[in-house]
Amino acid sequence: MTKRAIANVGFSAGGIALLAGCSGPQSVFEARGAEAQEIMPLFWTVTWIAVAVTVLVVAVMAIALLAPERWRRRLTSEKVVVGFGIFLPVFVLSGLLTYGLLVMQAGSARSRSAEGPGITIVGEQWWWRVVYDGPDGKQIVSANELRLPVGRPIAIRLESDNVIHSFWAPQLAGKLDMIPGRTNTLTLEATEPGISRAQCAEYCGGAHAFMSMYVVAMEPDAYRRWLEAEAEPATEPVEAVRRSGQQLFMEHGCGGCHAVRGTPAAGTIGPDLTHVGSRHSLAAARLPNDPQSFRRWLTENQHIKPDNFMPEYDVFSDSELDAIVAYLDGLE
What we know:
By secondary structure, the protein is of the alpha+beta class. It has helices at residues 3-21, 34-66, 69-75, 78-112, 220-230, 240-251, 291-304, 318-329; strands at residues 115-123, 128-133, 139-143, 145-149, 154-160, 165-168, 176-178, 184-188, 194-200, 212-218, 281-282, 287-288.
């Protein structure tokens, strides 16, 4: 096998590996939302036009460098220069602009038909505050996980109280910035049940890369039941170990930063923990949601997510840690 053949095989294998990596809960190639399904054809259209233009430019360069003199003279003719230098770019770019504007117009029409009540997502450093408008007008505060009903356009209000963030759920829609002092609205309409992933797409500081969340699309009836349960306060612990963990949680000031509805803990600096045990992840999708992760987060969170605002708690004994973990894990 020649060196060129070996290189071609390696390039093809690398390309296949790259395409294989473009899958999973944050893949832009798996559209599960109405807006993402409209963006996908636009993406492929732009991609293939870019490929065609690149091939054309390479072909012209090859002719200019390697072809006989008569072919090179033709490239310098007025018709070729005007056609390929003016008319072709104007035609291609105008077509793409028109197509893009039509996609944007469809998104605007969907936002006008968005159903209430809505949801507000606030970009924090470096996590997400998620506030649902309940059917009775009461706000239901959660964190680091977004749940949506399938088949309904939902208006998502995007805000920030610190720096510029950007909310991007690739399988559902395009990204939109979260700007301090301003509310931007993004309409999400999930087309099928499932779990995808959202990411902050604007550099916002030290732990920016670890600012993610899971987006759970649910059947409407399941979503309604979940929202009713989410509005309830935390259940009072029954087991002795969990009661001990709750007492330690309160005594060591955790309630000054975190809220657990139904208890004296009413902090707003950190995520609401009322139903933290029922979420799919911890620390804004940095860790799986299990007792071991709770324990790791309490004792080594600065290693897991550098520069976050929570101190590491190295004052607890193993039995005390077990009690606090049991309490938090049971907040479902």
